[in-house]
Amino acid sequence: MESGYVRLNKYLAECGIASRREADRLIEAGKVSVNGKKAHLGDTVTGSEDIIANGVLVKGPERKIVVAFYKPKGVTVTAADEHAEETVFDYIDLKERLTYAGRLDKDSEGLLLLTNDGALIEEMMRGKNAHEKEYIVYLDHEVTQDAVERLSKGVYLTDIQKKTRPCRIEKIRRNVVRMVLTQGLNRQIRRMWKTENYEVKSLKRVRVVNVGLGDLRPGEYSILDDKQVSALKKALQKGKV
Question: CATH for 6-57?
Fold first, then answer.
């Protein structure tokens, strides 16, 4: 590769447009052009070109930031949803174009990480790397040790035909548990407890990898400093399988 050139998918990730994998999908779908010509997989650029992705002119790479946001209950995790009363981006007043690294369903609250670092998003979303996420879960009646042991070993979810990975569950009050998962199936925790005839009344995510909620209150966010981002990246590398 010539000096000063980088692969187009990497450049789009550095600009916060998408992860490298998603950038490849955009290129394959014909939704990326370079100087007016349709882009192809493997193309390289310097960044001085007129690059258009999904009909939008791509600006140069922004400063890379990671944001810790306390998503309130009832807020939708999405960039755009005409039916959503509120989305996470109604709360975050930053010029950087951010993408969430992992979701939280509308009925749940707690820590959500957002960033414009495409490589970091790709690393966090790679399920095989088994990165930890910690939750406090309130249930509708007293938790039994038998239920804890069964769910800790992994349980088959018939409605989505998937088995959960083994996880850590600690009973901290009669109907409250702490759960540490390395998996992110759709509404996984609610589905898991339903197999034991429990209803999740409240669910809060308090940690993602090594980043915790700290003193954040619902609707508040903070930008991680360089030391915190470096520690997060090291933790992600350590967690690889």
Answer: 3.10.290.10
